DNA sequence: AGGGAAAGGGGTGAAAACCCCTTTTACAGG
DNA sequence: CCTGTAAAAGGGGTTTTCACCCCTTTCCCT
């Protein structure tokens, strides 16, 4: 019996291309392609459309890979999700794995490695390259220093990433300038930074603010 | 006679996949794949390896698409370069076109569109989607406000994107704090910004500084 | 030779940012 | 009801930044 694969990727050219690759592997066939997570979930409502393996892109519009994977894992625990991405961002990779992806393939993978991944994930239930394995270990060593930011602080940070003065930020947030200064000071403490530039850099690196 | 195509992309899986697509088109065949511009130029030293069309990724290590395209265009003016990228950054698209690319394909292109592009570039010498055409017009309308920054100013901007005070920046650049303030003030003027945050945002958006 | 950028340096006052510490307010839990 | 805690607001003093002025030196170009 052949293993049924579904490819979810908004880069349609890539999706079609991978489809041809997968179809060329013995014992594998592509059921259909999807452009995003939403489309995939719609399809999978019909039992005939539930595959064995989903090759899932991470960066997609509408319903991204992480969210989609999470839902898949809860709804169809027997479906194996393999992440497929150019993204090398640690947070994103870990996000996918936490969401229940059984492996993470870079898009510069060789043809043979894709086949290997598909076969291993069927056999063992997971597939991890050395790169990803190393990352996993790293994330255990450094447990992601859980600096907990409150809603109001996040809002403030976003404002701080503009040319507004603190007085203007205070007005925009309907607070006293002094309160804003309070937010700022406690953030400086928590995040171990010295001035507003540090705050902006933190925000950008944590993707709280997109420049 | 078949049209010979070469695919240059460090995402090897994608490259292989596109290869299979291209080979499935009537009248086209893939000569070989390359992982970057350097590899391509090495190959093309042998006349038998000079293709009719190059499908060129933009983001590559070692020798990127823009640089490679420029060299190809000077050395082999008869070779048609089609850019192939996920990149939607206006500067990069324009860079590729200025470097001599005959078209710019998004990686979410449909199979049929790729075939169309290959055929049209052979027939007419170019291929542009509506999206790209619109971009081209836009770039003519807004002639890229040529704010000319001097070396010393660029150096200062990079320092300004850190938690250093101006005094510290002055020390790092072996200048008087006053000179630094001079740079700052004239940049505020030139760039039409009000404070250091604006400068940081400008630097990031212009890719002078990568966070 | 002279005019004009470009680069480096300087002064001052006002505003903003920074830092520490207190008070008020509000509200949940014993 | 009282208490503890956390958000909000504030006071006051120091440093930094900002936004104006000003000057000299160097170097390039016609």
Number of domains of chain A: 2
Rounded Rg of chain A: 21 Å
Q: Largest sheet of chain A, order of strands side by side?
A: 2-1-3-4-5
Corresponding CATH architecture of the largest domain in chain A: 3-Layer(aba) Sandwich
Can you tell me about this structure?
The structure is a homodimer of 211-residue chains. With 211 residues, chain A is an alpha/beta fold. Helices cover 52% and strands 13% of the residues of chain A. The first copy, chain A, has ten helices and five strands. Chain A has helices at residues 12-24, 37-44, 65-75, 90-98, 111-124, 130-141, 151-160, 166-172, 177-191, 196-205; strands at residues 3-8, 28-34, 53-57, 80-85, 103-106. In chain A, strands 2-1-3-4-5 form a five-stranded parallel beta sheet, sandwiched between helices. In chain A, helix 1 (12-24) links the parallel strand 1 and strand 2. The first copy, chain A, is elongated and about 70 Å long. The model of chain A has no long low-confidence stretch (mean pLDDT 86). Chains A and B meet through helix 1 and helix 10 of A and helix 1 and helix 10 of B.
Describe the SSE topology.
Two copies of one chain form a homodimer.
Chain A: E1 3-8, H1 12-24, E2 28-34, H2 37-44, E3 53-57, H3 65-75, E4 80-85, H4 90-98, E5 103-106, H5 111-124, H6 130-141, H7 151-160, H8 166-172, H9 177-191, H10 196-205
Parallel strand pairs in A: 1-2, 1-3, 3-4, 4-5
Helix pairs in contact in A: 2-3, 3-4, 8-9, 9-10
Chain A binds a DNA duplex (30 and 30 nucleotides) through residues 150, 152, 165-167, 175-179, 181-182, 184-185, 188, 194-196.
């Amino acid at each position: 019996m052949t293993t049924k694969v579904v490819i979810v990727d908004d880069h349609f050219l890539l999706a079609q291309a991978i489809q041809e690759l997968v179809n060329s592997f013995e014992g594998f066939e592509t059921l259909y392609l999807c452009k995003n997570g939403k489309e995939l979930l719609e399809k999978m409502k019909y039992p005939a459309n539930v595959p064995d393996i989903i090759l899932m892109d991470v960066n997609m519009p509408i319903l991204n890979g992480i969210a989609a994977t999470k839902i898949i894992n809860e709804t169809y625990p027997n479906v194996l999700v393999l992440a497929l991405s150019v993204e090398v961002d640690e947070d994103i990779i870990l996000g996918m794995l936490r969401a229940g992806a059984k492996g993470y393939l870079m898009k510069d993978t060789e043809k043979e490695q894709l086949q290997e991944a598909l076969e291993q994930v069927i056999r063992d239930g997971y597939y991890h390259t050395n790169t990803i394995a190393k990352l996993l270990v790293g994330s255990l060593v450094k447990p992601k220093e859980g600096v907990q930011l409150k809603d109001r602080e996040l809002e403030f940070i976003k404002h701080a990433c503009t040319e507004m003065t603190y007085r203007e930020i205070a007005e925009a947030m309907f607070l006293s300038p002094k309160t804003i200064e309070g937010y700022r000071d406690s953030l400086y403490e928590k995040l171990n930074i010295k001035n507003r530039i540090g705050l902006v850099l933190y925000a950008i690196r944590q993707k709280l603010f997109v420049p």
